[in-house]
Amino acid sequence: MRIILLLFLPFLVFSQSIKVDEKTQQKLGIKLYTVKQEEVKEKLTLPATVSEYAGLVAEVYSPVSGVIKKLYVKEGDRVKKGSPLALIYSPQVADLLTQIRNAEVRLKTAEETLKREEMLYKEEVIPYARYFSAKVEYEKAKGEYRALLLSLRSFGEVVGDSVLIRSPINGYVVEQKVFLGSGVDVSKEMFKIHGHEKLWVYAYALPEDATKVKKGTKGYVLWQNVRVPGYVDYISHEVDKNTKRVPIRLLVDNRQDLLRPGLMATVELELGKVSGFWLPAEAVSNVKGKDVVFVKTPEGFSVVEVKVLRREKDKVLVEGLKTGEQVAVSGVIFLKAQVEK
Amino acid sequence: MTKILKFRLLVLFSLMLMVGVGIWSFLKLPIDTFPDPTPVQVVIYTETPGLSAEETEVLVTKPIESVMSGLEGVELVRSVSLPGLSYVTVFFKEGTDVYFARNLVSQKLQEAQAQIPPGYIPRMGPNTSGLGNVLFYALVDESGNHSLEDLKTLQMWKVKPLIKSVDGVEEISQWGPERAYLIKLDPTAMSLYGITFQDVIKSLEEYNQIAGGGFLMSPQGDLVVRGLGRIKSLEELKNVPIKKAEGVSVLLGQIAQIEPGELPNRRGAFTLNRKEVQGNIVLKRINTNTMELVSVLKEKIKEAQKILPEGVKIEILYDQSYLTERALSTVERALLEGIVLVSIAIMLYLWNIRTALLVVLSIPFTMLLTFILMKQTGLSGNLMSLGGLAIGIGLFADATVVVVENIYKHLSEAKTHNKLSVIADAVSEVIKPVSFAIAVIIVVFLPIFTFESVEGKYYKPLALTIIFALLSSLVVALFFMPMLSYYFLKGGKEETYIFAKLREKYLALLEKALKIRPILIVLAVVSFVFSLFLLSRVGTEFAPELEEGAVLVKSFLDPNVSLEEAKRVAKLVEETALQYPEVVRTFSNIGRAEVGEPEDVSYIETFVILKPASEWKTFKSREEFVNILREKLKDVPGVEFSFTQPIQMRIDELISGVKATVAIKIFGDDLQKINELAQQVEEIVKSVKGAVDVETEAQSGKAQLRIIPKMEELKRYDLTTAELMELVAYALGGKEVGYLQKDQILFPIVVSLRDKDLETLKNLPLLLKDGSLISLSQVADLEVAEGFQKVRRENGIRFALVQCDVSGRDLGSFVKELKEKLSEEVKLPPGYFITFGGQFENQERAMKRLAVVVPIAIALIFLLLYINYNSVRDALIVMLNVPFATIGGVFALYFSGYNLSVPSAIGFIAVFGIATLNGVVLVSYIKSLLEDGLPIRTAVVQGASRRLRPILITATATSLGLVPMLLSKGIGSEVQKPLALVVIGGIFTSTLLTLLILPSVYEKFGVKMGKNEDRR
């Protein structure tokens, strides 16, 4: 008797329909969901931190040693490329300027000497050797002068006996290490300027998830209501010691200035697309070891077995339904209990 | 006797005193619905948050059971283990003092504590009884400004202290969400900041401290030093620093969402007329008088209402006193009507206003004296004890009738004018027979005192009151009545015209009866045999259901339903019931309140309170209403319903630990196996006619999330299981980590997770020794599997449970059929067995006891008769009344459709006594006539004729006294009806047969006396 019953059990269970009238259905909070075949992007959601893009970081050093005479910016200011940052009085420059002036004088003298010697030579008053030496002298003075000018130009923009420092990039002054009167030299960093048009975002994936990600994979950085696009440009070959996860770096476009370095954000990577019937996870119940959903019929519900292809956080991808069918997605427990009775 | 008359003024004075004390006793008599059938029991519950049913059983329930079962006087240990709760009930021997029992248990609790894992603390349950749920009330918000949490806070901190201060309130079980501050941690953020749960908990503990600094003498005076480090607001909570990293603190607000909410892991809710409210149940301390308690409680609730903010109302939903009031008014009415009816009958018979007045007066005197006795012995006035009075009204007048009538007779015939000596003679003449008669009836009630358990608790008070009343009636008749007669009675004509006519008719009838003696005797024998046959056809039950005027709908849901879903079912049931105008209100309790009760959200009790029966239109009886509801709810999928009454359910639960009439327990070791067997049993039960609301308790099928450590991985990361389990306990178990103080109220702070889905759990961060973090899934497997919802045990053996109610059929035959079917169809493996419990258990035990007790009662009657007559033959002839009475009793039962129950059996016992008295009166008189030398035929006829009036008076008075109870439709009358019915039926036939057959039987078989006389 029992064996026969067991044999019929599958039929008994799965050909079963459950009578529920509309009112009861409503009162029990059984809500319906119309199924349709849909393409769903497979996503990987990861914790992430935002950091600077190394390509857009500028540290400003003084090319000369000297003293800050004027500061045009302070920490936190936004600067454009070429905006003045500071004016540095440098004895070096003053010295150079003197030298230049001297060289200029020397050059003028040499030039005049050359002119006179040339005239004298042409009138054959003096020998060529003398003229030649004057010419050499002149060339030398000119070279010296030019060299000095070049040397001055190498200090950058020189205003009077000071050097004007300008920002090399668009960005923010994130660090200011000098103040009015600070002494500077080439080894002293004065400012750090960050450009935020582009940022790097480090997402941390479990090692097994990291293998699914490729260079160039598209993704979004989510923070509050912001959604900033980007792509993977680097996948670390090492597992991060602290988090035991693999850092994945995304390069994101931040021209709208929505993100800032140091933020804790979430990264959503698009891994591909899957097509099928996606149902809310609650719709699928396990009855006697089989996955079933409850499909609405005029009298109530019928029990339909489905094949679960994939499970995600709150969704299940199934096979075995038809587009347009309505399945129960809440209060399913009542239907399940009824079937199991 | 002459002394009583000599000091008659003193007697009169003592009568007045008795009346006064009697009235006072009556007014002060503690009042209850019916005797509390709660056995002596102590409940031990242990909350085991986070443990599954199986673990609770092994780790907590088992050790407690084994410790407790060794206690002195323990009869039974029953337990239920649920996820998060262990519930052990220890039953003590009847008569053990409950405080002594609690003392024993509390001593052993220490020992039990040592055997269970630390952190789980076994506690004794409230010292209440099964009928302890005396009053239900709810806090209702009418303004829309107060959330359920607010209401609960008001209840906990304002209303509860007031109500608990009432003497007799043991506990208040409170429902609804409790306000708590939730710290919903974001594991992602935590892992990036390198913060663990331990960090959070440590910080919360360290940044939330207060201290007392004693006193400080200062120029400002003597100062109390207080360290105030208690967190007082949400803002403060958000700014609790968790970890200093590179000089900057990470604040709690940065890694968690913090908000006020409800304490997690709530396993219950209370709804009223479709809406969730904050409901409460007041539990009374055992042996507290319900009526008094409820009236004090009502006062206190009015007081509490005053301190509540505007818009919040306390609504009283249900109190047990209404039932008491209705039941008592039923009994009181029956008593009054009985007195009136009996008085009228006596007046008609005696036809002498003075005599009748004295007899009628004897009834209230008897009662007052009884009340004094009840008050002194601590017997409470309830349906059973007062019912006993209502039943016995007619009997109580009996002694006085005999005494007063004899005085009257002697006064009428008196030749001397010494009234005093006439009365004294008259009374002395009847002292012996009257005392003997009373003794007989008392003796028949004695065996009832051997009853045990529930039936003992119910019917002992009834028997005791009757005995008290009978003794009182004897005192009244012999002590007060002679004195009153002295003042009131005068001689006169002895008999009325009407009665003379009646006697004439009777004598003619007796003449005929004597002629056809053999036929009559055969007829009597045949009808006795026939009545025995009918008796076998009468159904059996324990006791008729007491109508409570309320319906209780029990809903059994799938073990995996959520509280929200359960609330919807409760709403549905309430809506269905509220469609009927007869329904006053509905309310439900879902699952359990915070004080341990072994239920989960998959169980709902819905109370449907009905208007008085006289206002019912849509349906005529409760049964009809229940059938309507059952039909309406039939199609709700996934829910099983069962119907009963609030108090009945509690009593059922008390008796068998199960809330249904019939409980089938399948015992065995393997949980899976016993549950499979239970399924099989359920099918069989369903196939038995009369089974309704059949339900196999869902013990299995509870989905669990199992977190199983991977030992290899743990080793590699140098983690211990304890660390892992701590994480589970804090992140999921909802442990309290401190309090947030607002005004004088402390709200718990609870750590939880922002999202509680499987994915998040897998990624929970764990701190390693080297300061780095890993996620939970790396060291543990997380899987969803099915486990157990409930593990029940009795005396250490697990059992599965099938329960059902019986409708349209008597319990006895139902269980008999079921037992036969079960033994045929279910094959039990060795070590497995089935037992039956519920109401049925009582019935079986009571019936077994009755099978011994009734013969003993009969034997006692015989013994007394033998002592009286010193003749087996005479005693046997008088005993003929037993079969005579049986005939009427059985016929009455059979044709009225009542079942043979404990009250009807007691009816039989009573009627045997009363009927025998009829015979005694007759036979004694005939004997005395024979002694006077009259020939047998004359003696028989004359005796019958002379004794016609007393016999009729007793019979009529006794029957009439019962009529009001029989006809009453009031609440409580249903319990007494079978008793009344049997007595009336029995008295009718026994009187008839005493008057017609007994004389002829005596003539034939009792002739020895005549021969003796010849010899003399």
Please give the most extensive interface between any two protein chains, plus how many residues each contributes.
A-B, 30 and 33 residues
Average pLDDT confidence of chain A is: 83
Protein structure class of chain B: alpha+beta
Gross morphology of chain A: rod-shaped
Rounded average pLDDT of chain B:
83
Question: What is the strand arrangement across the widest sheet of chain A?
Answer: 3-13-16-15-14-17
Query: Per the principal axes of the C-alpha atoms, what is the gross shape of chain B?
Result: elongated
Helix content of chain B: 55-70%
Helix vs. strand class of chain A: alpha+beta
Indicate the radius of gyration of chain A in whole angstroms. 39 Å
Strand percentage of chain B, roughly?
15-25%
Could you name the ranges of chain B where pLDDT drops below 50 across 5 or more consecutive residues? 1009-1016
How many separate helices of chain A? 6
- Please describe the biggest sheet of chain A, giving its number of strands, its sense, and whether it closes into a barrel: 6 strands, antiparallel, barrel
Ends apart, CA distance between termini of chain B: 34 Å
As residue ranges, the low-confidence spans of chain A are 5-14
Counting DSSP E segments of at least 2 residues, the number of strands of chain A comes to 23
